[in-house]
Amino acid sequence: MTLPTNLHYGPLAARRLGVLRETDLATHTALSAALPALVDGMVGEGDVALLVDLLAQVAAEAPEAALALARRLEDVPVALADLTGLRKWALHGLQRHRNDAPRRLHFFALEDPLVFTDLRTENDSAHLMARRETLLHYLAGFGIATHRIELHEPQLAVLAPPSVSVDTELIRFPRRCADAPAWQRDALYRAAIAHAAAHLRHSPLARPAGSRPPMLLAMLALVEDARVERLMTLEYPGLHALWGRFHSACRETSGFELAGLAARLARALHDPSYEDGNAWVDGGRRLFEQAAAADLHDLPGFERVGRQLAIGIEKMRLTLPADYRTQPSYRDDNMLLWDLNPTVAPDERSSVAREDVALRARHEVPPDVRQIEVDTQRRTRHPEWDFRLEALREEWATVIEPAAHARPVGPARTVAASRVRPKGRQRTPDRAIRLNKLAEGDELDLNAAVDNAVDLRARGVPDGRVFRRHGRRRRSSAIVVLMDLSESTERFVPSSFTTVIEVEKRAARVVATALDCDTDSVALHGFASNGRHEVHYQRIKDFDEPFGVEQQARLGRLRGGLSTRMGAAVRHASAVLERRAADHKVIVMLTDGEPSDVDVVEDDYLIEDARHAVVSASARGIRTFCLTLDRRADAYVRRIFGARNYLIADHAATFAGHTAQALVKLIAQ
Question: Are strands 148-151 and 170-173 parallel, antiparallel or unpaired?
Answer without folding.
Answer: parallel
